[in-house]
Amino acid sequence: MAEDYDYDLFTIGAGSGGVRASRVAASHGARVAAAEEFRVGGTCVIRGCVPKKMLVYGSMFAEELGHAQNLGWTIEGKSFGWATLRDFVNADVDRLEGLYGQTLANHEVEVFAERATITGPHSVRLSSGREVTAKYILVATGARPAMPQFPGVEHCISSNEVFHLARQPQCLMVVGGGYIAMEFAGIFNALGSEVTVVNRTDRILRSYDEQIVDRMLHIAMGRGIDFRMHSQIKSVEKDADGCLQVDLGGARPVAVDQILIATGRSPNTEGLGLENAAIELGKGGEIPVDEYNRTSCDSIYAVGDVTDRVQLTPVAIREGHAFADTVFGGKPRTIDYSAIPSAVFSQPPLAGVGLTEAEARRVHGDVKVYSSDFRPMKNIFSEHPERGLYKMIVDETSEKILGIHMIGPEAPEILQVAAVAVKAGLTKQAFDDTVALHPSMAEELVLLK
Ligand SMILES: Cc1cc2nc3c(=O)[nH]c(=O)nc-3n(C[C@H](O)[C@H](O)[C@H](O)COP(=O)(O)OP(=O)(O)OC[C@H]3O[C@@H](n4cnc5c(N)ncnc54)[C@H](O)[C@@H]3O)c2cc1C
Ligand SMILES: NC(=O)c1ccc[n+]([C@@H]2O[C@H](COP(=O)([O-])OP(=O)(O)OC[C@H]3O[C@@H](n4cnc5c(N)ncnc54)[C@H](O)[C@@H]3O)[C@@H](O)[C@H]2O)c1
Q1: Is the same domain home to 135 and 188?
Q2: What is the mean pLDDT of residues 12-24?
Q3: Which ipTM was obtained for this model?
Q4: Measured from the CB, is residue 19 less than 6 Å from ligand 1?
């Protein structure tokens, strides 16, 4: 196929979408090369989902060791060392990066450890100056933290830096009200840092069910996280002793030792040379694509965060796989974006699939809501009288499930399975017909009233 080109496929970016697409295209017989300017594995593996989840696990021991003491365990000399957790997590990231590189090598994907830019519909230039050609180009360059503009923003960090902090912050300010803000507020609160969340509106986690989010807020405040709603940083000044003085518009500045900005992620399209293939960007700098991930240029496709459809790893992976099957496997495939389950690994975590109650009322008019508001057995050991909340939204007449939303220990693990039922179009009756598995938290799902 590649008689006139150096490769059949040149992938720019070896993250979730790019690695999957390259590997599958190669297994369909394509000659594939990929360029990665930072580290193979991309955001999820290197500075996203994976190290974040490991920090969540590490931080949860603080509470669990407390529970253990209530259950008769004596733990002498209990203390926490941030550097040990950080280094453990980063060592595992190194291991995973190696595995991803190995996968590409096993599939004979040639990897260029450098930046690539597009010079034409079939050509890219590597930062070494070398120009290569390919029948198809896949842009899988992901996204980067969007930093707001205010004086002193250079003293703040993003999620890129949070995995490498020299010291655990004593006082951490987190800016934003999305996934990253809630997850890192939870991690550092559990580890004992004083955490303040600054959010410009009074709503956090906008895409989740309001009642579930309210429960999360209530629990987070009970655990000592300070929420400053309708607030925005005006400026930050750094003292001689390294302390950050934050002007939030109040009478006095707030002093913290670290500020984490988590205000969304922008597609990595700047300086990518898309204009050389006459590709115009969308309003947020994303690459517009059709249902087959094709851009306005026939030989250039794009998948994952750079297209700003759903910024989640499993979605980028599916898009990459579908692209490779479509273009190199002779099996045109599109992705069904309905009922994608997602979770926020806050403490406790929350998870949801399908329509929220408000969305369901807007779209379907009359809906029924079944719920269970319960105290998980696991929390009986703890000083926190925190309650879990599960909700099922169903269509009033057909009883077909429109959405399931939950907060409580292990909610993401439980929701993944419940999402199969929502995707399969099951009704509430199917849950009622299923015998409870007792004692478990998941049994609440078949006991909803
Ligand atoms: C802190 C954090 C936590 C997250 N947690 C979760 C989670 O729990 N669950 C979940 O589903 N999602 C999570 N996400 C989102 C998830 O990481 C992304 O949706 C996913 O990584 C997108 O994959 P991608 O292939 O589009 O891009 P990426 O994985 O970002 O890969 C893009 C790659 O392209 C490289 N690149 C960019 N430009 C060039 C160029 N010109 N030349 C060469 N290489 C280039 C980059 O270095 C990068 O390695 C999280 C994100 C963050 C930041
Ligand atoms: N558990 C997961 O699946 C997970 C975890 C982390 C990240 N992600 C993905 O990464 C993406 C990025 O995460 P994120 O938390 O940065 O973004 P987000 O889109 O979830 O949240 C951004 C938040 O920042 C606020 N904001 C935007 N501009 C602001 C400004 N100038 N000042 C103050 N607040 C501002 C928004 O109102 C919103 O609350 C998510 O959309 C998600 O798809 C997923």
Answers
A1: no
A2: 98
A3: 0.97
A4: no
CA nearest to 193, candidates 171, 175, 174: 171
**Token couple for 193:** 């840092």
Domain that holds residue 391: 348-446
Q: Known catalytic residues?
A: 438
Q: Which atom of ligand 1 is nearest to the CA of 180?
A: 1
| CA of 44, nearest ligand number | 1
For residue 146, which atom of ligand 2 is closest to its CA? 16
How far is 349 from 185, CA to CA, in rounded Å? Answer: 12
CA 447 to CA 188: how far, in whole Å? 35
Question: Checking DSSP bridges between strand 32-35 and strand 7-12, what pairing results, if any?
Answer: parallel
Q: pTM of the prediction?
A: 0.97
Residues 232 and 201 in one domain: yes
Is 288 within 8 Å of 296 (Cβ atoms)? yes
Spell out which residues line ligand 2, taking CB within 6 angstroms: 148, 175-181, 183, 200, 232, 262-265, 311-312, 342-345
DSSP E strands in 29-130: the ranges are 32-35, 110-112, 116-120, 123-126
**Which tokens in the block code for residue 318?**
């599916």
What is the number of domains present in the chain? 3
Amino acid 2: pLDDT: 47
178 has binding-site annotation? yes
